[in-house]
Amino acid sequence: MGEEATDNNPLQKKQRKKRKNFLKSAKKYAKKGQMGRGTQIPQDLFDYFVKILETIKQGIEDPDERHALVNNVLERTKGEELNIVGNQLGCRLIELLLPYASPEDLERYMDTLSPDLRRLCSDNFTSHIIETMLRVSCERATEHLQILDQLDDEVPKKKRKKDLSKYTDEHITSCHEFTLKIWEKPKVNMFVEKVGNPSIPPHATEMKYKFVPDEYKEIVKEFANRLSAWPQFKDLPYKNITSALLQVLLYAVKNTDKNLTKTLIKRLLNESFAPDDWVPTTGDDEKKDKIDVDSEESKEEKKNEGSLPPVFENESAVRLLEAALFVSKKKTYTQIYARCFINRLGQLATRKMLNFTVQRLIDNCHIKEEFEPMFDELASKYDAILACGNTGVLVARPAKVVSSLLELSADELLYILCDTKGCHVADSFCKGQFVGVKARDKLIWKLKVGVQMTSSACFLLKTS
What we know:
Elements: H1 2-7, H2 22-31, H3 43-58, H4 63-76, H5 81-85, H6 88-97, H7 103-113, H8 117-120, H9 126-153, H10 169-184, H11 214-228, H12 240-254, H13 258-273, H14 296-305, H15 315-327, H16 330-341, H17 345-349, H18 355-363, H19 368-379, H20 382-388, H21 392-395, H22 398-406, H23 410-418, H24 420-431, H25 437-449, H26 455-463
Helix pairs in contact: 2-3, 7-10, 9-10, 12-15, 13-15, 13-16, 23-24, 23-25, 24-26
């Protein structure tokens, strides 16, 4: 009966496996005498860390209590830093506390871990601590630059004292030197911060770059130049780890050196995405005496299989292509569109993995003359796209339609709005949840320029 009920309810969601509770597992193994993986710590210290993690899990809203807890725990670790960060439980706790650590405690961990930095970077647990230290040090070393930039943007009516930073110059210098020291160590991985939204590219939110010292920018340039000089550079997009590295590198270089960004994208396009020596396969090499019983649509689909560039055959490379679309300028964007997407949008939009790439292509299109052929190419595939369930392609970037409509002259707008069908377009424009207030105001001001307005257009102004 149970199986039949499950089969008769297609809407019933598949139950996900419950995630393992870290603290519960830690207590379970502690009873067996196993104080976490990695280095061993005393049982009393292990139990103390478990209680602290339980307190953190419950939440501490009072800043003073949180500050006292961080100071007490880090004070307890004095003299045992290396042993604690090498333990699974100790690493978990210290990683949570370091962002709130005092300058003295953070510098103490810097001094302790720096001599063995190369060896510790390959440790399963200590490497997470070094990653957190690098992130926190970089934030503290550049925080005063962000405050200065905010003050420059404001127009002060009268002189006022500028509270530049809550950290001393000595601590900022220490954080700055530690950040640079990471780069000086050979064979040390570049760490990527794990944020709440791990999607790449960050198309859902605006990417804001921080102001950093020139030394940091030179590190990025040198790293990009060294990496691009590798003979294996063309193969890097097709591996998960190296593709993610190149994505982060493109985002970092975008705000550092525009020419270097252009060079990297061109090399990826010419050597990896759609190589110059790549030739589309049409399937003519198949045996002529083989009986083909497929339908015409299947034949067409198989024929188009080989017409896609190599980049679309690998998911890691596809994600890197999306990053390249995000950081590219107009001319480079046009080259990517011509080499990889033109006359293939309908085919790409109906595929589960590749329809997101089409959405990113539309998201980053800033030229009206390029958007129109994209629209025309997808128009004939609407039924197939809807049948596949890839509706995101059809609703991607409504701002493109809005901007195209606002680029029309006042006379052209009046002609559209006075039409019986045009009134419905205008109604959707003014009531649509994805259309901003500024866009609606711009439409009204454009209409005011017109010499004459009909009753339909007047009704539009009243409803907006």
